[in-house]
Amino acid sequence: MDVFIRFCLRGRDPQAPETRQQCGALSGGIGIGLNLLLFLGKLLAGIATASIAIMADAFNNLSDAASSVVTLVGFRLSGQEADGEHPFGHGRMEYLAGLVVAMLILLVGVELVQSSVQKILRPEPVVFSTLSAVILAVSVAVKLWMFWFNRGLSRLIDSAALAATAADSLSDAAGTGILLLGLLAGRFFALPLDGWLGLAVALFILRTGWEAARDTVDPLLGRPMDRELAADIDRIVLGHDNILGIHDLVYHDYGPGRAMMSLHAEVPADGDFLELHDVIDHIERELKARHHVETCIHMDPVVRDGRTEALREQVADIARGVDPVLTIHDFRITAGPIHTNLLFDVVVPYGFRLSDSQLRSALAGGIKGLSDRYFPVIQVDHSYVEEQKA
What we know:
- This protein is α/β, with parallel strands linked by helices.
- It folds into three domains: 2-221, Alpha-lytic protease prodomain-like, CATH 1.20.1510.10; 224-302, Alpha-Beta Plaits, CATH 3.30.70.1350; 304-390, Cation efflux protein, cytoplasmic domain (Alpha-Beta Plaits, 2-Layer Sandwich), CATH 3.30.70.
- The chain has eleven helices and six strands.
- The strands form two sheets. A three-stranded mixed sheet has the order 1-2-3, covered by helices on one side. A three-stranded mixed sheet has the order 4-5-6, with helices on one face.
- α3 (52-78) packs antiparallel against α4.
- It is elongated, with a radius of gyration of 29 Å.
- The two termini are 32 Å apart.
- The mean pLDDT is 81.
């Protein structure tokens, strides 16, 4: 399968907009053709067997053909260049296409639930047909191939829309397989399973549609930054001289290959401004070349003398004592005649067990334990990076 996909792409950059359009066109064209053939075959099989489940599965394939049209159009629109009304491009049209596909999957599932319940309440005999069984078996094989093909494309270009299409194909294969088993059960055991099998298929389709919708809605609403991407950005930025730390990393996704990012880079307060600015410019160009991300970096000058470093480490230990996930940054000291201000930011994940005020109180209590002269000024930052999954 990978060989076939790569042959179709002929060595093009997977993240290039034109490559994504080609993948969308390839998936959409194949999907339209194969799903229309499956629709016609299952329609004939459903008429021959008088099976409501097979008829419903036929119209499911017809909706899949419509979904392929949506995928095709979505990728075409997402590849349009930025304009005056959409300065960040049209990349999110790919996510919208995936969402429409998910909605069509859910619609088919609801319709199939209704027809299956009616079949359960008023069962009718299903006529066995060898031709119908062969059509269903071929349909399972075709849908499995479409699943592997679309999954391969989605992984190659990291596409939520194609991932939704692959999930739909897998659910279709499972659903048609269940219908085939039901047809055989009715033939050899005379069991009235048609309505119940249709209901099982409907529930499976609804679950697939819900998962596909969730996966396409997340990037539209704004999801946390991928941990691996954040770690690589840390490595790149901190790999340069005079960069002491990095924080407040924010990533804005405007569609595949269209992203913007901002971050704060800590630099020596006594460093040469022009030299540091040149380093920052170089990092921005490097991040764009490696990850195709437009980056804006804010320089935070920090003092790294012995006293500041010692106090910073003590406060970091206090934060880790409250919870090991906590980190601090932008630590600085302003000394006065009566007290010394310790100013810093603390980074917490969303859903942290303490409220912001409770966290400030816990940290302030620990800092007061170091000296009554210390007055903490604490800013609570919430992380935009994806949390580590257990």
